[in-house]
C-alpha cells in the first residue's frame, strides 16, 4: 500500500474530460476567441520568446501593467496559472488546520469546498436565499461567529449569476476582520468591480482571470490585487518561476489590447439579455437574472433535457444532485447562432414534454 497523505483518497477529482461538442457552452469559455488584431500580435510575440531561459522580466512587466491599470503598483499584484491557482493558494495560506474556518456562500463555485478541504481547513458554506441573493448580514454573522480566517465571495456568483453591489461588499468588508477574497472571474460582464475598495480595506483581495472575458482559457492566467503585505505572504506559497513565459507574453499582449475585446463583451451581454427573455417565454422554465456570461435555468426534467442536448452534441453544465442546484442547467452565452441553436433544441424538448 502506498502511504498517501491523510484525506487524499477521499478528495473528489474535478472531471475535465470533454466530448467533441458541436456547441460547447458548459465551461463559460469564450466562443468567439481572440480578435484577429490581437491574435496577430500574439503570434509575433510568441515567435520572439527566449525558449531556453527561465522567466525573467515578463512576470514583473505584466504585474506592472495590471497594477497601473487599476491605480496600484506591481507590488500589489500576483499572477497565477489561472485564478484557480491563486484561489487555491489563498485557501492554502489561510488554512492549515481545522480551526481555520473558510466561509463562502452556497451554491457558488464548487471548487471552494474542495480547496478548503485540500488546505486542511474547515469549509463553512452559507446558504443563499431561495432567489439566490446572498443575505450579507447572515454572511457577516457566520464569518464572525466562526472566527473565520478567510471569507470568500464570488461576484458575480457562479453558477447563479447574481451580484452584490459595491455597497454590499463594502458592508461585508467593514464588518469582518479576517481576510476577504472577492472572486471577480466574471466582472467584465457586469456593471461594477470592487477593486477600488482595496485602498480602504487592506484585508481584502480581488481575483480576476483571463479565461472568460479575454478568451484565454488555454493559457491559464489569472491575477489578484491586494495590499502588498498580503501579496508578499502569498508569494511564499508559490514555487519559483511558477508562470511560464508563453502564457505571460500572451496575457501581456491581451491585457495591453484589452479594449479590442469590448465589442465582444458587449455582444455577450446583449445576447444574455436576449436569451433570458427567450428562455423565460418557455413554459416550465425559470431563468435567473445573470450578470455574467451564462444563464442558470431551472426545469423540472433538467436531466432528461440535458440527455437530449448531449444527443445533439450540445454541452451545457448540469449540476446533478449538487445542493441548491437540483434540476438546474447552466448555459454559457456563445455566438448568436449558437445561442439560437441551443434555444431551438430546448424549445422543441420543452414543448414536446408539456
Ligand atoms: C472560471 C472560474 C475561475 C477560474 O478560472 P481560471 O481559468 O482558473 O482563471 C475562478 N472562479 C470562478 C467563479 C470561475 O467561474
UniProtKB/TrEMBL annotation:
It catalyses: L-histidinol phosphate + 2-oxoglutarate = 3-(imidazol-4-yl)-2-oxopropyl phosphate + L-glutamate. Pfam families: Aminotran_1_2. GO terms for molecular function: histidinol-phosphate transaminase activity; pyridoxal phosphate binding. Residues 51-342 form the Aminotransferase class I/classII large domain. It is an enzyme of class 2 (transferase). The modification N6-(pyridoxal phosphate)lysine is found at residue 212. InterPro entries: Aminotrans_II_pyridoxalP_BS, Aminotransferase_I/II_large, HisP_aminotrans, PyrdxlP-dep_Trfase, PyrdxlP-dep_Trfase_major, PyrdxlP-dep_Trfase_small. The keyword Ligase does not apply. GO terms for biological process: L-histidine biosynthetic process. This is Histidinol-phosphate aminotransferase. It comes from Selenomonas timonae. The lineage of its organism: Bacteria, Bacillati, Bacillota, Negativicutes, Selenomonadales. The gene is hisC.
